[in-house]
Amino acid sequence: MSTFEAEPPQALSSDGAASASAPVPPISPARRRKVRRSMPRGVSGIIGPEPILRAMSDRPAPELPRLQFVVDGRQVEVIDNGFSLLAALRGQLGVRAAKAGCNPQGQCGCCTVLVDGAPRVACVTPARRVAGRTITTVDGLSDEERTRWSEAFLATGASQCGFCTPGIICRLEGLRARGTAADDRAAVDRALAAHLCRCTGWQTIGEAWEIALEDDPGVEVSLPADRDLDAASLRATIEGRASQRVGADIALGRGGFAEDTAPAGALVAMPRADAESVDDPRDRCVLVRAGW
After folding, report:
1. What is the DSSP letter of 79?
2. Which of 53, 65, 140, 280 could form a disulfide with 136 if both were Cys (CB 3.0 to 4.6 A apart)?
């Protein structure tokens, strides 16, 4: 018997109701599509809380409380809608230094920021927990700190695409601020356990840590005199079969990612988790707002 063939009739009680012990037949593919298509959609066709509220009610939304905290040296105020710190940074404030990777699973570390100097994963940190506190992204580090880390990462090849490195740099800067020694690679390895990187191995990041802390705090990272960044960019483009650029700013997450450069209000199509089981191609994606 295939998975979706009809099950034997359920046993009925004296009042005609199905017995609680009777097996419940699975939903057929046709029924599943019908249920999916009956989901309420907003006037824009976007599945999500806000469009649904707009479509179901003309009443004004209740006034939500607001939160205040400091981001990269400036006082900000956001709506306390129960979302994460990452959603507040990217969605309400337009801060692109914190990247949205596995959001909201807290596994990849791309969204790591400093909260009162301590590294925190923003996608699993409720925004209301940082009220009155100081948030520092990689853009909020001093010029000296950004130069130290970006050039150290460039010198060792510790950054390729540059998507995860802003979070890693925040993690390492928090470690440095606690007085961790340059040769304490065990502490660095433990800290990096909170991060995932598909481009590089951890060896080059560990080497970047050692270079960045040489003669700290007045470190000056010197790159090889014969380093040809244009040639390195061309090689990366050929090997990756996509346009890539090599430079110190890439480690700071300034590589021009689509989610960081999309116009305000832009929509992108995201595949559904069950896309392969959906017959109609038009139902295999949902529209979500770009940027976070």
Report:
1. E
2. 140
pLDDT at 18: 47
pTM: 0.70
Average pLDDT, the chain: 79
Peptide bond into 104 cis (omega under 30): yes
Is 163 inside any structural domain? yes
Contact 105, 69 (CB under 8 A): no
Q: Are 197 and 164 in contact (CB under 8 A)?
A: yes
Asked if pLDDT for residue 72 goes beyond 60, the answer is yes
- Note whether residue 183 is domain-resident: yes
276 in any annotated domain: yes
Closest alpha carbon to 156 in 257, 255, 246 = 246
Top pLDDT among 118 and 245 is at 118
Domain termination residue (choose one: 113, 139, 165): 139
The secondary structure of 88-146 as a DSSP string is: IIIIIS---SS--SSTTS--S-TTEEEETTEEEEGGGSBGGGGTTSEEE-GGGS-HHHH
Computed on alpha carbons and rounded to an integer, the radius of gyration of the chain in Å comes to 25
Do the Cβ atoms of 233 and 244 come closer than 8 Å? Answer: yes
Indicate the DSSP class of residue 252: G
- pLDDT beyond 90 at 79: yes
Q: Is the pLDDT of residue 174 over 90?
A: yes
Q: Is residue 15 a part of any domain in this protein?
A: no
pLDDT tens digits along 128-142: 999 999 999 999 999
Q: Are 285 and 272 in contact (CB under 8 A)?
A: yes
Residue 205 has pLDDT above 80, yes or no: yes
Whether residues 178 and 129 share a domain: the answer is: no
CB 202 within 8 A of CB 285: no
Domain hosting residue 215, numbered range: 141-260
